[in-house]
Design a protein that fits this description.
Structural class: alpha/beta
Number of helices: 7
CATH superfamily of the largest domain: MoaB/Mog-like domain
Bound molecules: adenosine monophosphate, magnesium ion
Largest sheet: 6 strands, mixed
Helix content: 10-25%
Length: 422
């Protein structure tokens, strides 16, 4: 008889042959998730953070007319002598919004303010600091000027017909300004994805209820609320669902009828009370189960009717890690925009980090800049997947790829700053 237990693959192993790599998981998400179809027309202020539906072309030139980039004097370059000083007669003033009514002839100039239309007959603005007013009131200008200087040409920012906003673009504050500069007051954007979420676990109680022995407060629905709010989706909080197959099935069916994306936390490992998998198998389909990352190995992608289901792990840190790596891209695709992976920055490690090769690890770090401006990163203490304060104190993930076999202080590592926006 054997004196040793032959152990099954588990999250204690650095490498599990049945788990899929992170990139593979992202590929499968991209294959599965379709953008929402419906759109709505909204005043542009309400389009901030929303996804543009159709490319927007400029109806006119910006700026619409040539105007001055400086306070100074508008003149015809041909009026200036090739050498020495030229004296010009000032015949009026052009203000922003109040054009000079007349034409600038040879030997004449017009006092001009920034943003004022360049008067007919002039093609050059000499800034006031480079001109002199003579005792007789005439304007003295030397020969060191280029034809066309200090003039913003019509259409130099945007030409009529240029695409100013691509389909699928996420509207940022500058986009709102660009649309306003074109006189566009409304825009057609994709409707917001609707995301339903719930926690599973008989040990969970909600805030306000007494904590009896063995119980803990549900924190995952709060981190999810925070991350989803930053993503700009519509949320349906379905509360805590007990570890019972019927309750799980009923909640999933209800969520599928109302949401584009369903998120659950907990109940996706291989414990006896992990009922997500069988419930999903009954009313939907399942895409994958284990991803070679830490924390967050058990993760499910599935479909119930037209809704995408993502079963996140129960551990609070694993919830935030898997959300940032897999739920964010799924929401980006649903919202009708491209997957935007967070940028990686190189940083010098301040601490040693233990790691075995075989899976991607997301440790929690505090990144700061040293005197030379280079990034350096330290750990936020204990890195267990239940230690949520490691996330609360951190400003970045320290991303250790599959092959990494540990970090010594001074080593270069990749960091990924937290960014919970769409
Ligand atoms: P599970 O995946 O359901 O086995 O949960 C893994 C661990 O995460 C357990 O220690 C759970 O008690 C804990 N956990 C699960 N859901 C939550 C939650 N919503 N809030 C806080 N801890 C949780
Ligand atoms: Mg559980």
């Amino acid at each position: 008889m054997s004196t040793q237990i032959e152990s099954q693959p588990s999250c204690a192993d650095p490498f599990d042959p049945s788990s899929i790599p992170l990139d593979e998981a992202l590929r499968r998400i991209a294959e599965r998730v379709q953008p929402v179809h419906a759109c709505e027309r909204l005043p542009i202020r309400e389009c901030l953070g929303r996804v543009n539906n159709e490319a927007v072309k400029s109806p006119h030139d910006i700026p619409p007319h040539a105007n001055s980039a400086m306070d100074g004097f508008a003149l015809a370059h041909a009026s200036l002598a090739a050498d020495g000083i030229t004296e010009l007669d000032e015949i009026g003033t052009a203000y922003a919004g109040k054009p000079f009514d007349g034409e600038v002839g040879s030997g004449q100039c017009v006092r001009i303010m920034t943003g004022a239309l360049v008067p007919p007959g002039s093609d050059t603005v000499v800034m006031q600091e480079q001109a002199e007013v003579g005792a007789d009131g005439r304007i003295r200008v030397d020969a060191n000027h280029r034809s066309g200087e200090n003039i913003r040409r019509a259409g130099e920012d945007i030409a009529r017909g240029d695409i100013v906003l691509d389909a699928g673009a996420r509207l940022n504050p500058a986009d709102l300004g660009v649309l306003a500069s074109l006189g566009i007051g409304q825009l057609q954007v994709k409707r917001k994805p609707v995301v339903a979420f719930f926690s599973t676990g008989d040990e969970l109680v909600s805030i306000g209820e007494p904590l009896e022995p063995g119980k803990i407060y549900d924190s995952n629905r709060y981190t999810l609320h925070g991350m989803l709010a930053r993503m700009g989706v519509d949320m349906i909080d379905l509360g805590v669902v007990p570890d019972e197959p019927d309750a799980m099935r009923a909640t999933l069916a209800d969520a599928a009828a109302r949401a584009d994306l369903i998120l659950s936390t907990g109940g996706v490992s291989v414990g006896e009370a992990d009922y997500i998998k069988p419930a999903l198998a009954e009313i939907g389909t399942t895409e994958f189960w284990k991803i070679a990352i830490k924390p967050g190995r058990p993760l499910t992608l599935g479909q119930i009717g037209a809704s995408i289901f993502m079963g996140l792990p129960g551990n609070p840190v694993a919830v935030m890690v898997t959300f940032s790596q897999f739920v964010v891209p799924a929401i980006q695709l649903l919202a009708g925009t491209e997957i935007r992976r967070p940028a990686l920055f190189r940083a010098r490690a301040l601490d040693a980090m233990r790691k075995k090769p075989g899976r991607y690890e997301f440790q929690r770090g505090i990144a700061t800049q040293d005197e030379s401006g280079a990034w350096q990163v330290g750990k936020t203490g204990k890195q267990g997947s239940g230690i949520l304060t490691s996330m609360a104190r951190a400003n970045c993930f320290i991303v250790l790829p599959d092959a990494n076999d540990g970090v010594e202080p001074g080593d270069e590592v990749d960091i990924q700053f937290f960014d919970w926006s769409l």
